[in-house]
Design a protein that fits this description.
Blueprint: H1 13-25, E1 38-43, H2 49-60, E2 64-68, H3 70-73, E3 77-78, E4 91-92, H4 93-103, E5 106-110, H5 118-122, H6 125-134, E6 138-140, H7 148-164, E7 174-179, H8 189-201, E8 205-209, H9 218-221, E9 225-227, H10 230-234, E10 239-243, H11 265-268, E11 275-277, H12 290-293, H13 300-320
Helix pairs in contact: 1-7, 1-13, 2-13, 4-6, 7-8, 7-13
Bound molecules: phosphoric acid mono(formamide)ester.
Phosphoric acid mono(formamide)ester is lined by residues 47-50, 142, 150, 279-281.
């Protein structure tokens, strides 16, 4: 694996999921794979789970990790080509990225979308410029449109839960991604990425439900059934993934904050005793009720803890490729 930006970088999702599950059983199975290697984790935006799980994953592989909060501690970066830098940006990514490429063996980056201009965000300009100029493998810690480490974890968690499930082995599990209300406009990353991974995995009946105006980019949802009636969508679901996103069509706008879309125990009765997922952080009693989050159907903590093993599987795939060196 040369980079991990989207599901397109993965040749065999099942093999990667099995690797993550193996690391969950044997965290130190590859404890020398990353000896004398270093990962730089650059954060242009905040994080808790992604940051800590990636550092733990690197450590489990014997790799050193250095976190750099570019957004709050570094020089402000310029991403525009050919710009006259007489404004507030101090350093061009063209100059900074090769330096990171010389300091590290793998570069991991979190950059959120600005949610102002759809074309800009969906061009993935920020992460692509790091890929272009750093010369070493890049891992997305969430970019403008996708969150692949989260999605690999989500697929892994579904696979793991199926082992404990009373679900008939021959039956395809029904997975529902439901939009939820929120207090502010959020990116489409988690929803896009989850849709992309679940449809690529191809082992579930996948339904997306959201209010009018919240259709995701069809590039990521091809193969999903899309229903605007939440109750109908939830019928017989085995897994319900709850997530807010802002509008893709009326880009970055919070069109509705309809509290009737919050998942609660009453709605869960329509499901097949579904397990409830969320990437966290979650707004309690806005996106999901206390009742659900504190109850037996919630697997959000399992999901968050699985972030370590998913990150470890990805880093080990990259470390395992030939000729990785400090100069890429
Ligand atoms: N789910 C997730 O990415 O969490 P953090 O924003 O805390 O990293």
């Amino acid at each position: 694996m040369k980079q991990f930006i989207s599901v397109d970088d993965v040749t065999d999702i099942d093999a990667l999921v099995q690797k993550a599950l193996m690391y969950k059983q044997q965290p130190f199975h590859s404890k020398t794979l990353g000896i004398n290697k270093r990962i730089g984790c650059l954060f242009l935006n905040p994080s808790m789970r992604t940051r800590l799980s990636t550092q733990i994953a690197a450590q489990n592989l014997g790799m050193e990790s250095i976190v750099f909060n570019v957004g709050s501690e570094g020089w402000s970066l310029e991403f525009e080509e050919g710009v006259i830098m007489n404004g507030t940006s101090v350093e061009h990514v063209k100059d900074a990225a090769p330096v990171f490429g010389n300091y590290f063996d793998i570069l991991a980056i979190r950059t959120f979308p600005l949610l102002k201009n759809r074309e800009d965000d969906y061009s993935e300009r920020f992460i692509n410029q790091f890929v272009k100029y750093c010369g070493i493998p890049v891992v997305s810690l969430e970019s403008a449109t996708l969150h692949p480490l989260q999605s690999l974890t989500d697929v892994m968690t579904i696979q793991e839960m199926l082992q404990f499930s009373s679900l008939e082995k021959s039956k395809r599990p029904k997975v529902v991604l439901t939009w939820a209300p929120h207090v502010k406009a959020l990116p489409q990353c988690v929803a896009n990425s989850f849709s992309q991974w679940i449809t690529s995995w191809g082992k579930t009946d996948f339904v997306i439900t959201h209010p009018d105006g919240y259709t995701l980019d069809e590039k990521f949802t091809k193969g999903a059934t899309i229903i605007t009636d939440q109750e109908k969508a939830l019928k017989n679901a085995d897994f319900v993934y709850v997530k807010n996103w802002s509008s893709y069509d009326q880009y970055g706008i919070m069109l509705s904050n309809d509290s009737s879309w919050m998942l609660n125990s009453e709605k869960l009765k329509h499901t097949n005793n579904a397990k409830v997922m969320h990437c966290l952080p979650v707004r309690r009693n806005v996106e999901l009720s206390d009742e659900i989050l504190d109850g037996a159907s919630s697997i959000v903590t399992r999901q968050a803890s699985n972030r370590v093993w998913a990150a470890q599987a990805v880093l080990s795939q990259i470390l395992g490729r030939e000729n990785i060196s400090i100069n890429g």
